[in-house]
Amino acid sequence: MVRKPRGDQREAHAGGALCRGKPCQPLSARVGKGMSAGALDRRITIRRATVTNTGLGPTTIWSDLITLWGSRKDISDRERAAAGMVQGSVISRFMVRSFTASRGIRPKDRLIEGGLTYEITGIKEVGRRDRLEITAEARMD
């Protein structure tokens, strides 16, 4: 395999003709690919638990950690009857932009969206520091 000298690649890129053998795109089209602002249509709040010791023993207090824009996709739901009661739950995937504060989200945190409280079950990085995919479950009791 014969490769072009590095100088030829730089000249093609500087001239705007080719970027790695393909037509060049503006930087705005290459950054955050697949994550348009229009897709981030949900206001999401992440809460973190703090345990404080009161005179009656330890108490867990949930306080807001960060509020950000994201998207939600419901991936499954279920109902089950137990002890004469019907319990329902929904599992959703939330997609948010990855930045310093959002990378601090942990599975022990809670996610609030649309009046529901979700328990976070998983966090996955999509792309290299581009997006975070948060899987969470909300109970409907």
From TrEMBL:
InterPro entries xref list: Phage_SPP1_head-tail_adaptor, SSP1_head-tail_sf
Name of the protein in question: Head-tail adaptor protein
